[in-house]
Known about the structure:
alpha+beta
Amino acid sequence: MNFIAALQQIGDEGMYRAFKNFQFGNVRLSVQASFAHYCTPRVTRDDLSIYSTMEFALLDKNGEFIRVKDVLPDFPLLDEIERHYDSVYAYVPIELIEALYNALVESME
């Protein structure tokens, strides 16, 4: 998975961990997985391959939550990914996050 290989840890207070956001123009993609995030399993592990789902959020230049449909209205898996939305996108299969990450990369080319 491209996005998993690109994740860089920026915070670690006890068992709480945070990864650096990916920047795509005025949009930031935050992907997180730890005991404090909506992921499966809901634990903090260094081996990211154990996660089948992760949490993500899209943020605008002001740090406000935005939706995939507002950024990539023609995203082929839009209906499937929007089912996970509730301010953040919770328990999203990593394959869907990978597809979103790749679409955001392509949108910048």
